[in-house]
Amino acid sequence: MGNNLEFAGKVALVTGGNSGIGAAAARRVAELGAQVVVTGRRQSEGRLLVNDIKRNSGSAAFIQADLSQPEQVKRIVPFTLETFGRLDYAFNNAGISGENRLLTDQTEKTFDHVFAVNVKALFLLLQDEVKQMMAQGHGGSIVNTASVGGLLAFPTAGPYVASKHAVLGLTKTAAIECGRYGIRVNAVSPGAVRTEMLLDVFGTQEALDEMSAVHPIGRIGRPEEIADAVAWLFSDRSSYYTGQSLTLDGGLTAQRPYLTQPASDKLIQNTRDEKWASGY
Q1: Which of 2, 62, 84, 155 is most buried when burial is the number of CB atoms within 10 A of its CB?
Q2: Sign of the CA dihedral 150, 156, 159, 160?
Q3: Smallest Cα–Cα separation from 229: which of 21, 14, 1?
Q4: Residues known to be catalytic
Q5: Helix axes 263-277, 205-213, angle to 10 degrees
Q6: Domains plus CATH for the chain?
Q7: In whole angstroms, what is the distance from residue 255 CA to residue 152 CA?
Q8: Distance (Å, rounded) from C-alpha 126 to C-alpha 144?
């Protein structure tokens, strides 16, 4: 662990922390001195992460939780308090992408599942996090994972895109309601980041390489880059920043649309091809 213990004496909650952006954020805030609670669906991965943090002189605990189940969501903040006694920071990162299908082919079951994890669980967590921070009386900082999908639309990702727009709405509402209590609420909106979930969405390394090419900086992001942004949003260095979405996308949303066929168009075409091949 480094010498800069900016978050010493603080407690941070990271949902969806087993891998990718969540795991990178948990490691980063632990390096900065925070005691960290990590949630995830897979207990073995969560324990490995906690053990790794402890080996590096950090302090962490894991709670297994499926955020599609409200009763499991409601156990998270109480577990944090039982374990470390307080809550100063929360990174509500857990989310799912749903299925890659045209809007007309999406199912109600998929829509409900995406919204259960990406929106309802966030709503429930925000309630518990804000109440605890208000009770402590010392403010706090909450960061929610949105997406460039909350700013733009992607074909074949209707429920996901809608859910990330909802994340930004909840973020702004919480920010304006909680500002007077010294609680800041922001979102990070990553573009393409090299994670297990992104590979699941695009399917192959070749597709990820194509996605890299459409970014002005010529690559997709790393989880550690998002983690650094989360740490900044937790810190007092961002004390005048609230109700905002910090877009981290390598310039993707700053440019005009490509005239050549982008990966998203190819995804539509592949979806249609698969439908025709299946006899639909």
Answers
A1: 62
A2: negative
A3: 21
A4: 160
A5: 140
A6: 11-277 (3.40.50.720)
A7: 13
A8: 9
- The structure tokens listed for 13 are 């909650």
3-state secondary structure of 61: strand
H helices of 118-157, in order, are: 121-136
In this prediction, residue 198 carries a pLDDT of 64
pLDDT in tens, the chain (280 residues): 445 889 999 999 999 999 999 999 999 999 999 999 999 999 999 999 999 999 999 999 999 999 999 999 999 999 999 999 999 999 999 999 999 899 999 999 999 999 999 999 999 999 999 999 999 999 999 999 999 999 999 899 999 999 999 999 999 999 999 999 999 999 999 988 877 766 666 666 777 777 788 889 998 899 999 999 999 999 999 999 999 999 999 999 999 866 444 555 555 555 544 443 333 3
How many degrees, rounded to 5, is the angle at CA 30 between CA 163 and CA 65?
Answer: 45
- Do the Cβ atoms of 190 and 250 come closer than 8 Å? no
* Cα–Cα dist 211/202, whole Å: 9
CA–CA separation, 63 vs 61, rounded Å? Answer: 7
Residue 172 to residue 153: CA distance in whole angstroms: 20
